[in-house]
Design brief:
Layout: H1 2-25, H2 28-33, H3 35-73, H4 76-83, H5 86-93, H6 98-104, H7 120-131, H8 133-158, H9 169-180, H10 193-232
Helix pairs in contact: 1-3, 3-4, 7-10, 8-9, 8-10
Length: 233
């Protein structure tokens, strides 16, 4: 048991080191100067993370045969473990556009989620989200429906006044998304009277759309914390 704890502690330190390396590597001058170090550090880290992944698959098989393997591989942390090493192998064995790989490198950030493997709070949060997944699916459907409706409406209201901006319903999706999310970048705005009225209404509706899933998750999380403390007593 102590050996497992030491190994986990080593993995956590390695994860932190990888995150720091990724941050430092984003600086062009540092990347040029220490490119060889970054490459071999990444290679060694990937080998260790790959060993950890295979070892956890083995432990899952040993504990509950193939059911255990499937349960781990498709679990939250199992997917995170895989995503944290997959981009490296894709680059090595598959000929892909370098720009696409740079996007995949963002999955390296998923290693930080591995730090929460033993976190009771994170487990409670995941359990809370799982408990309300049907409600969240409905709110997602409602959000997509509102975005499509808003994009369609603003297109018909603003197309004649701003044909280059609201050229189609598809082009209007950006405005609808940022408006319903209450972000409002201001790069695309309605200029007609009815367009402004509609935008004001949509902004108010957007507050509710953002608040609903937030409230659902918060209520479920509080309930899981209450049940955890009750069972602990």
């Amino acid at each position: 048991m102590n050996n497992f704890k030491r190994f986990d502690a080593f993995i956590y330190l390695l994860i932190i080191a990888n995150i720091l390396a990724m941050i430092l590597e984003s600086h062009h001058s540092i990347k040029i100067r220490f490119s060889v170090f970054f490459y071999y550090f990444e290679l060694i880290s990937i080998l260790i993370f790959s060993f950890e992944y295979c070892f956890r698959v083995y432990l899952s098989f040993k504990e509950n045969k193939w059911k255990g393997v499937v349960a781990y591989v498709f679990s939250f942390f199992g997917i995170i473990d895989l995503l944290s090493i997959l981009p490296f192998y894709i680059k090595q064995f598959v000929l892909i556009d370098g720009r696409f790989f740079r996007i995949l490198r963002l999955f390296r950030l998923s290693r930080i989620f591995k730090l929460g493997r033993e976190s009771k709070s994170l487990k409670l949060f995941i359990k809370a989200i799982s408990a309300v997944k049907n409600e969240l699916k409905f709110t997602l459907y409602l959000s997509l429906l509102c975005i499509l409706f808003s994009a369609s409406a603003i297109y018909f209201l603003e197309n004649e006044a701003q044909p280059e901006v609201f050229s189609s319903i598809t082009a209007s999706l950006w405005w609808a998304t940022v408006s319903l999310a209450t972000v409002g970048y201001g790069d695309v705005v309605p200029i007609t009277v009815w367009g402004k009225v509609f935008a004001g209404v949509i902004s108010l509706i957007g507050i509710g759309i953002v608040a609903v899933p937030t409230g659902i998750i918060s209520a479920s999380f509080v309930e899981e914390i209450h049940n955890f403390r009750k069972n602990k007593k």
